[in-house]
Design brief:
This protein is an alpha+beta fold. It is built from 8 helices and 6 strands. It folds into 3 domains: 7-75 and 123-147, Ribosomal Protein S5, domain 2, CATH 3.30.230; 77-116, no CATH class; 150-287, no CATH class. Helix 1 crosses helix 4 and helix 7 (243-263) packs antiparallel against helix 8 (267-287).
């Protein structure tokens, strides 16, 4: 089963007269990049929360916001009265000395860092458990989103691998003909170069065998078919994040397709190789979003 790296999850909960809201978003990333915003009272719990999220979300650029508000919808805040009075006293003195009005003094002081802060106190373990339960429910909806997106990715990947296998089957139609054309082309070139009467047929046949060995693509066809089969098998593995494995198999598929192209010596075969490469590039694009 494939999981998409992009995802979204949200859940709401409550504790006493407080409401809890959790929102999780994820985008593509080769590594785990978690940005988290917790209420000020629970900063000391950040390491614990990071483990909860990364264990469930795995890779991706993940943003999570946890909000806890009172029943009136406002966050718990406190006013640092001593700091406020100190700023007000000094600013009032300066404005009087400079003959400036004090119309916006209140708003200016409230915007100064640490004058208004979120209330901080001891961690309420029961409230923390309520937050964790809400986070877990958000992670469940987040995972369900990833699974749904993964089904779409899986269908597309299966279709493109099947197209590569179909194109591979068509190679057989052109394989024998290219040997015949190569043989005729070499004979004509030699006859034009040294004359038909000077052509040593035994030596010519030896040279033909050399070229036929270089043009043989039997191993490449077998390996390409095996890699495609293995790719599909890995998609079917349950409870596994297959993105890295599929990327590795894709590299092997690309290697065999490139070798087919290098040994083609035939326009029809090259056309099939180009089509395979096109499908492979689309597979790579999709795998960038597979967990």
């Amino acid at each position: 089963m494939l999981l998409s790296m992009t995802g979204y999850g949200r859940a709401n909960g409550s504790f006493g007269d407080k409401s809890i809201a959790v929102e999780i978003r994820a985008l593509n990333s080769k590594m785990t990049d978690l940005k988290m915003r917790l209420p000020g009272d629970y900063k000391e719990k950040e390491v614990e929360m990071r483990k909860i999220v990364t264990d469930h979300a795995e890779r991706g650029k993940i943003d999570m916001i946890v909000e806890v508000q009172n029943a009136d919808g406002a966050a718990s805040v406190s006013l640092n009265e001593g700091l406020f009075r100190g700023y007000h006293r000094e600013l009032s003195r300066l404005t009087n000395e400079l003959g400036m009005g004090q119309t916006d003094l209140l708003q200016a002081i409230l915007r100064i860092p640490n004058v208004v802060t979120a209330t901080s106190g001891e961690v309420d373990e029961e409230e923390w458990q309520a937050i964790c339960e809400t986070v877990n429910r958000a992670l469940n909806t987040f995972k369900a989103f990833r699974q749904q997106e993964g089904l779409v990715l899986e269908a597309d990947l299966r279709m493109r691998v099947a197209t590569i296998l179909t194109l591979l089957a068509e190679v057989n139609k052109f394989e024998q003909g290219r040997f015949t054309r190569m043989r005729e082309r070499l004979r004509n070139n030699l006859e034009e170069s040294i004359g038909k009467e000077n052509l040593d047929n035994n030596r010519f046949e030896q040279e033909i065998l050399y070229y036929l060995e270089k043009m043989d693509i039997t191993e490449e066809k077998v390996r390409l078919a095996q890699h495609c089969k293995y790719f599909l098998e890995q998609i079917d593995v349950k409870n596994q994040s297959a993105g890295r494995t599929l990327n590795f198999i894709t590299q092997e598929i690309g290697r065999e397709i490139n070798t087919l192209g290098a040994k083609a010596y035939d326009a029809d075969l090259q056309r099939l190789v180009v089509q395979m490469k096109d499908e492979l590039e689309k597979i790579k694009e999709q795998l960038a979003n597979v967990l």
